[in-house]
Structure formats: C-alpha cells, structure tokens
Write a structure and sequence with these properties.
Helix content is about 45%, strand content about 10%. It contains 14 helices and 8 strands. It has helices spanning about 1-5, 35-40, 60-75, 110-115, 120-130, 150-165, 185-190, 190-195, 205-215, 230-245, 265-270, 280-290, 295-305, 310-325; strands at about 20-25, 45-50, 80-85, 135-140, 180, 200-205, 250-255, 275. Helix 2 (about 35-40) links the parallel strand 1 (about 20-25) and strand 2 (about 45-50). Helix 5 (about 120-130) crosses helix 6. It is globular and about 60 Å long. It starts with a helix and ends with a helix. Bound molecules: phosphoenolpyruvate and magnesium ion. The site of phosphoenolpyruvate (PEP) has 10 residues, from strand 2 and helix 9. It is found in: Cytoplasm. Its cofactor is Mg(2+). Keywords: Coiled coil, Cytoplasm, Kinase, Magnesium, Metal-binding, Phosphotransferase system, Pyruvate, Sugar transport, Transferase, Transport.
Length: about 325
C-alpha cells in the first residue's frame, strides 16, 4: 500500500470529476521540506515559525530568521510557503519572555496578542519574512486573531516594516499575500469583517474546536468531547467558506482535521480550497481526493449539515470513503 501511495507523488490532487484541491503541508522545521517532495504535497500551508524561538535563551535575530525563511522560500519556489508569525503562549512558552503561571494560558497572552505588545520581537520577524519574500512565493499569516482591531494593528506594523525596507533599499515582494488564521469563534462568526484586510483565511481547527466546544485540546479528561464533526464546527466552517468566497478570498484548513482521510470529502464538499496536512498524511489524503467525485462531496456536505449527532456525521463520511476506496 505504501508503495502505491508513493506513486501518487507526481499526480495532481484532483477529484475524479476534475475539481482541483490544493494539498499542502504543515511544517515546524525547514528540515521537513524533503518530506514534502517525498510525500507529494505542493507547498507549505503552515510553517509554525515558533519552533525557531523555542528551546533557546533569546529570540533568533532578524538575520538568522531571514536566512531560514529565505532558504525555505528558495527551495519551494514557485510553490508557496505560508509563514505563520510567532504563536507562543498557551502550551508553547517562550522562556525568556513569558511565564507559565497564567490562570488560563489558552485565553491569555498568546500569539498575535503577545506580538502586538512586543514590537521588539514582532518587527524583526515581519522584516525577516519580507526580506525572504524576494526569494520565492512567501505569504504571511497571523495566528489567534479575535477582532479586526488586532488585524489592522498587525497590518499597520507590516506596512511600517515595508516602509523601512524601502528606505533601506532592501528588495521584497510588494504584493506579498497576507492571511489570517480563523481559529477563534468570534473570528469565524465575523469572517466577513476580516475579509477586506486579507488575501486568505486559514482555519485552525485545532484551536477553533477547543474554543467553540470549550474543550482544552491538551487535557485527556475531556478529550472525548473534542469533536471535529460537531454541528457547531461544521456551521462555522460553512460560514467561513461562504464569507471568504463572497469576498474572493480562498479558504484553507491547516488544523489536524484536514489530515483525516475520512473527513476530507466533507471538507471538500463544504467548499474548502486547500487542505494543509502533516507531510506523511498527504498521500492518503490525495488518494481520497483522486477517488472522490466533487458532486458526491457536495451532496455529503449538504447531508451532514442536517444530522444532529457528530457520530452520524462521521459514520456517513466513513461510508462514503469506503464506497470510493
Ligand atoms: C490550529 O489551531 O488548528 C493550528 C493549525 O494551529 P496550532 O495547532 O499550531 O495551534
Ligand atoms: Mg492554533
């Protein structure tokens, strides 16, 4: 089976009736790029940049970040790399800057909240990403945004960094696409307000499920309640896709849900444009995509929106994946 899946490497991620889905990969380290080629994913849909910052005494310098981002961009070009700005806090503590004694760390000083308060850390990262953008197809993405005020503040900081680089005569992609992660219920429910400020949405379902169902994603006692096929989650996904497409914005999923082969038809049927998955899962997802008919995926999604129980949704999804296997 593995051999068969490997043969999919060169095949496009297209349904049996010709509907193209973008299949990209989530990475934490630049070294993982070779896995992309091996497993036939095109581009990086989520580069979790915080791994460059963890397990070291001080944040990495702008230059060293620019080197890493630039080499990833060069290696992937013309395929895109979506570099997510620093997402620390929650269970990823930046030891030199944060403490682990917040009462509700996942609701606390995390990701974009931390970055907007710490321009001394955020600005060098934005500059490094901009500098890397001339080497390939680089996109910026902000994590954990809960309101447009934050999004606008982040974009203002980005514009400032662009001005500086222009003054310094440093080249960068003037049209670098900017996206926002949709991983907080308020962002999902007001996605249309975010649309004018970005080029793409990427659904972080790991956090979106955690916050929507109030289930700590790292607490085993409540993990049985962590249900990606909960109707509340499906409604949010559907809403975000609609809001995105109405505004000519493409919509990706980069949470673990995207890498579940049983759920791929449902997500495609809901209109998701891109699935970004752990590299080793890419062949399995591509296999499902290539056997699937887009028309069946649409029908499946419509049906699933009618079911009351997450278990029924999953069962119906499993039936379809078995039928096409
Ligand atoms: C997510 O929340 O779904 C996501 C992709 O981000 P992370 O898992 O890094 O929080
Ligand atoms: Mg997240």
């Amino acid at each position: 089976i593995l051999h068969e899946l490997e043969q999919l490497r060169e095949q496009p991620a297209k349904t049996a009736d010709g509907y193209a889905v973008r299949l990209s990969a989530n990475i934490e380290w630049a070294e993982e790029l070779r896995l992309l080629r091996k497993h036939g994913a095109s581009g990086v849909g989520l580069f979790r940049s915080e791994y460059l910052f963890l397990n070291r005494a001080e944040p990495p310098s702008e230059d060293s970040q620019a080197d890493v981002y630039g080499s990833v961009a060069r290696e992937l070009a013309p395929e895109p790399v979506v570099i997510r700005t620093l997402d620390v806090g929650g269970d990823r503590i930046l030891p030199s800057e944060q403490t682990s004694n917040e009462l509700n760390p996942f609701l606390g000083w995390r990701a974009i909240r931390f970055c907007l308060d710490r321009p001394d850390i955020f600005r060098p990262q934005l500059r490094a990403i901009l500098r890397a953008s001339r080497h390939g197809n680089v996109r910026i993405m902000y994590p954990m945004v809960c309101c447009t005020k934050e999004l606008k503040a982040a974009n203002r900081m980005l514009e400032k960094c662009k001005d500086e680089l222009r003054d310094e005569g440093v080249e960068f992609d003037e049209n670098i696409p900017v996206g926002v992660m949709i991983e907080i219920p308020s962002a999902a429910l007001c996605a249309e307000l975010f649309a004018p400020h970005v080029d793409f949405f990427s659904l972080g379902t790991n956090d979106l499920i955690q916050y929507t169902l109030a289930v700590d994603r790292v607490n085993d006692h409540v993990s049985h309640l962590y249900e990606p096929t909960h109707l509340a989650i499906l409604k949010l996904l559907q809403y975000v896709v609609e809001a995105g497409h109405k505004n000519d914005i493409w919509v990706s999923i980069c949470g673990e849900m995207a890498g579940d082969p049983v759920l791929a038809p449902l997500l495609i049927g809901l209109g998701i444009d891109e699935l970004s998955v752990t590299p080793i899962l890419a062949p399995m997802i591509k296999d499902v995509i290539r056997k699937l008919k887009y028309s069946d995926a649409r029908e499946l999604a419509q049906k699933c929106m009618q079911y009351r129980s997450p278990v029924t949704v999953r069962r119906r999804c499993r039936e379809l994946t078995r039928e096409i296997a």
